Amino acid sequence: MNPLLNPKDVAKLLKLSVPFVYKAAETGRLPAIRIPYEGKTGKVKYITRFELDEIARFMQDHRTGK
Question: Beta-strand (E) ranges in 1-66?
């Protein structure tokens, strides 16, 4: 099974801020898994996780000087 990373792990790996990682996941720039759950207020919220292989592929795809 492919390990899942949280946004903080991805931010460290890519040397980016955590808010940027969330935003990139929301807009589809970073491949992410969004797991819905119902918060205390009844509103649907999401837990964001990233597959290590997908982040590695993202890094390879966006490498310059290939």
Answer: 4-5, 33-38, 44-51
| Half-sphere CA count of 19, side-chain side, radius 13 A | 0
Other beta carbons less than 10 A from residue 59's beta carbon: 11
- Unique residue bearing structure tokens 């720039």: 29
Q: pTM of the full predicted structure? A: 0.84
Render pLDDT for 9-39 as a digit per residue (tens, 0 to 9).
Answer: 999 999 999 999 999 999 999 999 999 999 8
Cβ atoms < 10 Å from Cβ of 55: 19
CA–CA distances in Å: residue 53 to residues 10, 39, 43, 45, 48: 12, 29, 31, 25, 16
**Dihedral (CA of 7, 12, 13, 18) sign:** positive
Domain 4-61 has CATH 1.10.1660: yes
